[in-house]
Write a structure and sequence with these properties.
- The protein is mainly beta and 120 residues long.
- It has 1 helix and 7 strands, in the order αβββββββ.
- The chain has one helix spanning 6-10; strands at residues 20-25, 28-38, 49-55, 57-62, 68-71, 75-78, 84-99.
- Strands 1, 2, 3, 4, 5, 6 and 7 form a 7-stranded antiparallel beta sheet that branches.
- A hairpin with a 5-residue loop joins β4 and β5 (68-71).
- It is globular, with a radius of gyration of 13 Å.
Amino acid sequence: MAKISLRDKFSEFSEHWTPKVIAEINDYQFKLVKIAGDFVWHEHEETDEAFIVIEGSMRIEFEDYPTVEISEGEMYVVPRGVRHKPCAKEECRVMLVEPKGTVNTGASPGDLTAPNDDWV
């Protein structure tokens, strides 16, 4: 039962596209991730995915929907099963909220698939 400083947690890692778990509530995890450039197209068949922009701005591209721009202090929930690709021109710091065990690349494993349950 200790407070968590997002600024301190972000300072503990430098790599992009590797979500780090900072807390759990029931079966959900709060993850911090630094993003820059383009991620991979993917979907999460079993769960929605929440993106909360802490610092910077990003966009989420969709195959069947218009692109969504998300700025600092805003959030967006990608519904389960919707194919999407997160992107950021400059480094963006994001909090993700998703169930334990959610793989960052969904059912599309590859070079950007990060270790799961990596705590910082």
